[in-house]
Amino acid sequence: MFATRCAVRRLPQRAARRWAHTPATLKFNSVTEQDIAHFQKILPAASIISTLSPVSSPASELSIFNDDWMNKYHGKSTTVLRPKSTKEVSEIVKYCNERGIAIVPQGGNTGLVGGSVPLKDELILSLGNMTKIRSFDPVSGIIVADAGCILEAMSEYLAPHDYIMPLDLGAKGSCQIGGNVSTNAGGLRLLRYGNLHGSVLGLEVVLPDGTVLDQLSTLRKDNTGYDLKQLFIGAEGTLGIVTGVSILAAPAPQASSNVMLALPKYDNVLPLFREVKRQLSEILSAFEFIDRKSYELAVKHGQGRALNDEDVEGAECFVLVETSGGKREHDEEKLNGLLESLLEADEPLINTGVLSQSPAQFSQLWAIREGITEAVSKEGKAYKYDISIPVASFKEVVDKTRDHLKSKGLLHDDAVKHVVGYGHVGDGNLHLNVVAAAYTPEIEAALEPFVYELVASYKGSISAEHGIGAMKTHALQYSKSTTSIDLMKKIKALFDPKGIMNPGKVLE
Ligand code: FAD
Ligand code: 2HG
Ligand code: ZN
Fold it and tell me: Where do the FAD-binding PCMH-type domain residues begin and end (predicted)?
């Protein structure tokens, strides 16, 4: 490995808000044995999991659908339906609408805001059985797939055709393309390929009354009035169930490389970003930030391979830079030139750079960054704030949050163990994770609305990429005006007048 030494938004009224996570009372019908008998007419036995008779599955079979990835949010659904076709989804939804049964659409259940599990006993409609690639055009790179296709499986399908998916996330082995679209997932390639509002070309959606909206276009350009598909991208299952996705894949880069840069101080991140962009220009494909504690947690919990001690010594934080381009020699020359100039500068912005020399080392460096979420969840219970703020303020926000928790007497091993920051610097997206011994009302009360007010004071967004889910419905006004929220409510009422689609998520 290469290693060388070297105008504030007006804050909403606090008094009127509720801050504990207490979902509004939902008034929907519970699934009954008669409903199960009806679902048996639509679906084969293997597609119904229910504790109700005559199916009578053990409750343990339901828990992976009722509990979220963090084990923070817990639903009480009695029934999970796993349709295999759009027609089956449509029949289920039509019936639930008539009966007043609420539905939670569920993909890979890797969401981090409590959006994918019920608040009460809503029916869970899992897309996990809809896994067909419907078509792929190797000339345009457009792939059309069932919503339940796992992101990684789609990448594997595309690899022999020399294409890649335009998005990549640590949860790729479990998350589904329908879930990605429904959360407008960002991830590690957004800097290069932009977000899903650009790369998704068409959607097939089952609307809350069971009607199938077929907008599964494979056209790059289509200016025929309102672009309705955009409404479902990031709707978190509140407007309908995405059953099919048409998406533009990207040509696979012919050469990729990465380097982990160790920085003596956070203040160097921004000048470094400018310099890296200037020198690497079109081959820069990722610029990811990892603070020291996040790095230590990743290594402690076996994510990637630890850097040598001398590379870590004196580092306040790290930046992982990835390049992707068309010609290895050209890209290597640029990257090596960058590293040399960084290390030889009069006042170097970095201490060291650890450059991957093989595909295995490339993956190991990425594993450190991608593994932080997993590491944090092994260390304790994480309160996750996924925020957009000016990059210059990343460290300040982490420090202010830590100081605030300290002032509340909560910064000790039995309450909050660590406050860490990492994320997508290139996109202005910080992941602020507060790692606690347990989820407690006391810690939550110390964090909220504190964090949201802090974000608003930087004119930031309370959700850069994970969404609102059940976690932030009561905080939406920190990032959206009353006019916007009112319009969102009208759109929701237009699509879903009975409110059966993922109630209590996104909007209160
Ligand atoms: P789920 O968690 O099942 O559902 C998420 C939301 O979408 C829910 O509201 C659900 O109701 C709705 N939904 C799911 N499928 C459908 C459908 N077919 N139709 C309508 N609504 C639907 N997120 C990022 O943005 N960037 C990251 O880098 C990132 N990294 C992650 C790393 C790890 C280790 C983990 C655990 C999570 C990460 N996430 C990230 C969060 C999560 O993976 C994404 O939000 C992902 O897009 C969710 O997909 P899913 O299939 O698991 O959806
Ligand atoms: C990432 O960028 C994901 O790694 C997850 O968005 C962030 O766990 C988190 O807070
Ligand atoms: Zn992220």
Answer: 73-252
Residue with the nearest Cα to atom 28 of ligand 1? Answer: 187
Tell me how far apart the terminal alpha carbons of the chain are, to the nearest angstrom: 52
* CA 69-72-73 angle, 5° bins: 90
How distant, in Å, are the alpha carbons of 63, 104, 141 from that of 240? Answer: 24, 10, 27
| Residue nearest atom 9 of ligand 2, based on CA coordinates | 373
25 confidence band (pLDDT: 50, 70, 90): low
Ligand 3 centroid – CA 38 distance (Å): 41
User: Is 303 a pocket residue for ligand 2 (Cβ < 6 Å)?
Assistant: no
pLDDT tens-place string over residues 99-156 = 999 999 999 999 999 999 999 999 999 999 999 999 999 999 999 999 999 999 999 9
Helix (H, G, I), strand (E, B) or coil at 83: coil
Identity of the amino acid at 22: T
CATH class of 380-471: alpha beta
Atom of ligand 1 nearest to the CA of 180: 47
Measured CA to CA, the distance from residue 333 to residue 107 in angstroms comes to: 42
Ligand 2 atom nearest residue 386's Cα: 10
CATH number of 133-251: 3.30.465.10
Assigned CATH topology for domain 255-372: Alpha-Beta Plaits (3.30.70)
Q: Which residues of 85-119 are buried (b: 16+ CB within 10 A; e: fewer)?
A: ebebbbbbbbbbbebebbbbbbbbbbbbbbbbbbb
CA of 431 to the centre of ligand 2 (A): 6
